[in-house]
Write the structure tokens for this entry.
Amino acid sequence: MNKIYFDNAATTAIDSSVVDAMIPVMRNGFGNPSSTHSFGRSTRSLIEKARKDIAERLQCAASEIYFTSGGTEADNQALHLAVYDLGVKRIITSPIEHHAVVHTAEYLTARGVVELELLRVQPNGDVDLDHLEELLESDKKTLVSLMHANNEIGNLLDLHRVGTMCKARGAYFHSDTVQSMAHFNIDLSKTPVDFITCSAHKFHGPKGVGFFFARKGIPFKAFIQGGAQERDRRGGTENVPGIVGLHRALIDAIDHHKEHVASIKAIKQFFIDRLRETIPNVAFNGKSDSMDESLYTVLNVSLPPCEMAGMLLFHLDLHGIAASGGSACSAGSSIGSHVLTAIGADPNRPAIRFSFSKYNTHEEVDFAIEKLAALYTPKQEMA
Ligand SMILES: Cc1ncc(COP(=O)(O)O)c(C=O)c1O
């Protein structure tokens, strides 16, 4: 069996159609998009075509899309601009956000420029929206930052509900949509968000490129200074091949959305069924085993304690199977998953996140389950 890749929430394999779109730009499209001569104008037109097509697919204006170096930068941008350009005095977020949000919020709090409120999280991985409602009663100028799909446990947030709550209370709403972009239909004409973020490498595009969406009319300055690119809001020469790759990957994903969802959901369901058949007392963290209420690419498996607990990923890797994981932090240890810790997962149960793509097959699932189950099958006594 060839190597098996079940770590698609970390990154995905780049599609060959994406590589094919990028190569001519790397070879010949070297003009600086800020140059006014023909070399510059031709790369500029690639960027603007990408922006226009992406905006059309997401039902927003092209002028609301700003290309960035990826999701981390875009999340940083959202939180910084809220504080420094919009006068936000309080960030409400949750302890299960990606570090791009949690660490940025903690950094801004440590600098004394904003107050931080963390929402309670339920054992099933949902953030407590009653708590949000309570906190929104205050008059403080607020940014709410809550991710659409959790990268570790797959829980989904109702963007519409949260956006409506924020609007009613005059709070800005940022959602990290890095894991859901291209995997869910996002219609920005109907979704009440102020800011969302995207990273191309999560949907078979290149690494180091993404975008930041900011609702028209929200005034903000560049987070990265030093150039007038992106209409003065993101300095630095654009990553043209990256933007072309992002464009191709996003359009392909959206245009083939139905078939990708069907094939990935089938793989995930098969994985769940095979695990339940083979490993007694297997469980799932968050809502990741729900087909309707979770990110269909992510399955966070909670395994019974076993002698090999610390070696599970290594054991899988030895058999050519890539996954990722970790358990909740045990008392006194800060190593572990902040998400599993926040939902109160048992630190004695090892957790493995398997995350899927359109390239995975049922045979790969069978092979991985066989290797995992071997660790839970009592060894035959030697005669
Ligand atoms: C939810 C989420 N937000 C942000 C990021 C960061 O994106 P990037 O790798 O493009 O910086 C990731 C990537 O792991 C992610 O999963």
Notes: Residues 379-383 have pLDDT under 50 and may be disordered. The chain has twelve helices and 13 strands.
